[in-house]
Write a structure and sequence with these properties.
The structure is a single chain. The chain has about 300 residues and is an alpha/beta fold. It has 9 helices and 14 strands. The strands form 4 sheets. Strands 1, 4, 5, 6, 8, 11, 12 and 13 form an 8-stranded mixed beta sheet that branches. β9 and β10 form a beta hairpin. The radius of gyration is 18 Å and the shape is globular.
């Protein structure tokens, strides 16, 4: 746990806020190993990227600010978010301890893994946070994801509040449109309208374009109700009982797919205009360039 006094950051947060919502906690996933990005960095001959080798993706500078700092700033401004929890791996935990000194009250959880080969997986990371922190309603944020400039966190928080007033067990995820050539690279949701909102009727993990008419991609940003959180352990236990390889169930979208298929927790989808997914070097450069332009325009 980071307990030192917060250090004011010279840059303003990137999101707007008008939050009125049930109490919840934030979980930022930062336990991945970023193997694709590290491979790209090793292969790069551009000297300006040398300093990025070995840096976890959430700590990469985006427009001069660590990616995770942008989320921490945004989440701390939302008064209904009681605490921020970050799941790290054992190999990089010390780097996040140093980072967390800037944010009073940020709680770090280490999954104990030391390499990509013995990683716990994203869903186990969420479960770890919830168990150790005693968390119920949560917002899960992928540590390698940022959204476009028009994203309004307060608006999405209000949507979740509105939905849970109608159905306290319901959860909310986000969706954005993708082109045919991107469908097989992302999780796709199929939705239908009901009295509350756009209910997810199917979640497909990286389908082929001909397998679905939907082009609504679902990033790793979820508002999970207590009813959904309570099912994390059962999901993991069932996967292990079936002796499934980790690659078959570790992606967070697999848990959303499980909830949708079980049909005992209703999940709704709220649309956004797009996202930045810092997967490899090319996507990092694109995201960094865009946020640098934002900073220069302020």
């Amino acid at each position: 746990t980071a307990t030192s006094s917060p250090i004011p950051h010279p840059h303003p947060p990137i999101y707007k806020f008008d939050c009125v919502v049930i109490a919840m906690d934030a979980v930022i996933l930062a336990a991945g190993y970023g193997t694709r990005l590290q491979r790209d960095l090793v292969a790069s001959t551009d000297p300006k990227f040398l300093a990025l080798k070995g840096i976890p993706k959430p700590l990469l500078p985006i427009g001069g600010i660590p990616l995770i700092t942008r989320w921490a700033q945004a989440l701390k401004l939302c008064k209904e978010i009681s605490s921020i929890h970050v799941v790290t791996n054992g190999a990089n935990h010390n780097l996040f301890e140093e980072w967390a000194k800037e944010f009073e009250g940020v709680v770090l959880h280490c999954d104990g893994s030391t390499s990509n080969d013995n990683r716990s997986g994203a869903i186990a990371a969420i479960e770890l946070c919830c168990k150790q922190g005693g968390l119920e309603n949560i917002v899960v944020v992928g540590g390698d994801t940022l959204f476009l400039e028009d994203f309004d966190l307060g608006e999405k928080v209000d949507e979740f509040t509105s939905i849970t007033k109608s159905d306290p067990s319901a959860s909310l995820v986000l969706g954005y449109s993708v082109t045919d050539d991107k469908v097989h690279k992302v999780g796709i949701v199929e939705v239908e309208k009901d009295d509350i909102g756009h209910k997810i009727v199917q979640f497909l993990e990286k389908p082929q374009p001909e397998e679905t008419a939907s082009r609504l991609a679902c990033p790793c940003f979820y508002f999970l109700s207590r009813s959904a959180v309570d099912k994390l352990s059962l999901f993991l236990d069932e996967a292990k009982a079936k002796e499934l390889p980790l690659a078959k169930y570790d992606a967070p979208g697999n848990f959303i797919s499980h909830l949708v298929a079980a049909d005992d927790v209703i999940i709704y989808c709220s649309t956004i205009s797009g996202r930045y997914d810092v997967g490899g070097l090319a996507s990092y450069i694109e995201c960094d360039d865009e946020f640098r332009k934002r900073e220069e325009s302020i």
